[in-house]
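--- STAGE predict ---
source: upstream dedup step, 1 unique chain passed
mode: sequence only
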Amino acid sequence: VVGRIVANGGSGGNTFNASNGSLGQGAPGGGGAGGAIWIQCRGQMSLPSGAEITALGGTGGQGDGDGFIRNGGDGSDGYIFLQDEDGTITVPGTVQPNPTIAQFTPDVVLNSVAFIGWFDQFIVTPNYGSATIDQELNDGTITIEVQGSREDLSNPGNPVDPETDVDRLFTTDWQPISAIDALDNFRFLRIRVQFEVDPLQAFGDPLPIIHQITIPVETQPD
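--- STAGE serialize ---
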């Protein structure tokens, strides 16, 4: 890790007199809390001299309380969590507050799900054709599903939420993309893609990937 990663809290505000020339009587602001930084590395992590990772609390502001300086409270420090392959990290750089250091032992299961938001066809009775998919499985599997929705008449121009349409009066269940014709006459369409890698997948091996999904749409014939 080189350069700076900073998640410090902001400083609290000061109170000033009417001319802004000196501190005024009023409660100063407290400092903001530091954030959280979590870095995972599959190999060996090091922070060379000059590198900086900080999540410090901000300094409290100041005000005048009957001639005495009153300080707002400082923000609490945040949290830094560093993980690499052996849990031994060389830190000649600056890390504040003191980090928690642990070993990173990722699972080979790299399955993931991607959602693509609603597409509006701008026609009430769309007819969906067979999809063309440009993909590379790379020894994994890719499952593509589609879901349809009609226009929400109480919120024109937007789909009915499938989560609220439990009886599926205005939406469909998730369908395999090979059965996309089940979405005919549903104005809105969204896509869900599930990626599963081979159990023997090594970290450097290529992953399953989709380059493009093409779905032809036309108006339903009379």
